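Entry for the shared binder. Reason: the reviewer on the internal report wants the predicted structure included alongside the sequence.
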Amino acid sequence: MMETDGKPARSGFFGVFGRRRTVPPILVELPPSHGYGVDENLPAGIRLAAAWSWRLLALAGALAVFIFIVIQLRLIVIPLLVAVLVSALLVPFVGFLVRHRFPKALAVVVALINTFAILGGLITLAVKQIAIGTVGLNERLAASYESLKAVLLASPLQLTEPELNAFLGQAWDAIQADSQVFVSGALSVGSSLGHLVTGFLLALFSLLFILIDGKGIWSWIVRLFPHGARAAIDGAGVAGWTTLGNFARVQILVASIDAIGIGVGAALLGVPLAIPIGVLVFLGSFIPIVGAVATGAVAVVIALIFNDWVVALLMLGVVLLVQQIEGHVLQPLIMGTAVKVHPLGVVLVVAAGALLAGIAGALFAVPIAAVLNVMISYINSGAWRSEQTASAPVFASSLWQTVPQRPGFRRPAYRLKKSASHD
């Protein structure tokens, strides 16, 4: 008898003499199994692209919902952003006063009074100069209009006076229509005087509490996150706050250079309202690139109306020269180093902000992009892992001690790392 299961077998002559013979196992080859599912029949590149696609769609949906909520709450969000941006300038000044033995409350009051004094002085100076420059305005406008008409009639364009009057009428209608769009866009931030007053008071109230208790507010925000993420959020917030302060200070420097350049150029060319033009350029330059161009165009129009086309061309040359200095020197060297955003990125985020939220979006687009860029880079770098602290006490904030708590509540034993950025 023979065994076929791979064990030794004895049979025949060899079995009699005890010689062993090994029977090899029988190997049965099954037909290869083929998968008929979708994943098995798709290329790896398609599966990877699909995985990225639905994740990107989820992120885009969450971002769209967030932007929609911000737009709906713009009467709250815009004053809060204004307060944060102004506080980035005033917090170092308050800290300087506190280090020189000023009480905290007195330092905050001094900082606010100086801020309002500077803004009030600029507005008062501009209003007075406008009042002085509008003396004899009708006569100067009539003379400029006749001079411009004579130049156009004598030009190679071969225009007749009826055609010129029709063209000027169409231009005036277009200006009125565009002004209605600008006014409605500006009023979309606050549709009434009450909204504007409420926004101003909310911004002032937020600024006051940020200056008084910025550390306590920030520590409360960080404690909303899981314990393991607090070091990363705190470090990213410190980096973002530093970048925001750098942006505010550098933007004031850039705006001052633009205002001085265009204002002095207007004064040298004999353009009236040179000081109001400088103030307007200073305020408009807080919207990077776009603001200075728009306010410089106003200077050219004023030169064309009150002077002649030669002075207007020279004024245009001054504006273009200042813009070239800003675009090729100030923005790449000063602003780019401070906020670490490429000039192309600045243009794109300003355009996107203006498209989404008008003037307010253009104003806050660059600081928001710069802060997010620095915060994301800090978290991705992993530097916060070496800065985690196992245990530390909580900030002792007098304001947070006044908030009533439920019975048995214990404050978490966590403290943010000290940073001069929060002083």
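Summary line for the report: The chain is about 70% helix and 0% strand.
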